[in-house]
Amino acid sequence: MDRNKLKFFKKLLEDEKDKISSRIKFINENGLAMSMKESTGELSMYDNNSGDLGSELFERSKDFALREDAVLVIKAIDGALAKIKDGTYGKCDVCGKVIPLERLEAMPYTTVCFDCRVVVEQAPNPSVRPVEEDVIDDIYRQGHRKDIESAGYSMEDTWKDLSRY
């Protein structure tokens, strides 16, 4: 990529970073700087029906999500600026091909080409499991390992207890 295009994308990234940083500042100052009690103007949260504060809680959780998304975009922008410095900006992290200029203009902090992005999004992620399985796995982990002697509650103990019914 030539020097003029790199300057253009660097300016684009810096402008986007400034815009998102000001958005984070706005969210922090106007939504998340106050406690829930202060933001709603309620004297007490205890005497209200939980449904009465549903809208406020939704807006507050939305502010948290928007702020988190903005922080992730800033991290991606910082990564793209680092790639400009080391000379790898505009190359796909997966296949190594040049990312088309149209894609970079639309999303200047992207690190993968469109084809690789589609493949990554369509591939199932085997590591994403329900959080409940983490708890169950911790409880029964000792039962699967024959090399560890445990006096804990094993799967066999569970079966013995349940077989009575």
List the helices and strands and how they pair.
Layout lengths: L2 H30 L3 H5 L13 H33 L14 H6 L7 H9 L8 H14 L10 H9 L2
Helix pairs in contact: 1-3
Characterization of this structure:
- It is flat, with a radius of gyration of 25 Å.
- It has 165 residues and is mainly α.
- The chain has a domain of 88 residues.
- The longest helix has 33 residues.
- The mean pLDDT is 81.
As a whole number of angstroms, the C-alpha radius of gyration is: 25 Å
- Pairing-aware structural class of the strands and helices? mainly alpha
Order of helices and strands: HHHHHHH
Give the termini separation.
71 Å
Count of runs of 4 or more consecutive helical residues: 7
In helices, the fraction of residues equals: 55-70%
How many DSSP E strands? 0
Descriptive keywords:
mainly alpha
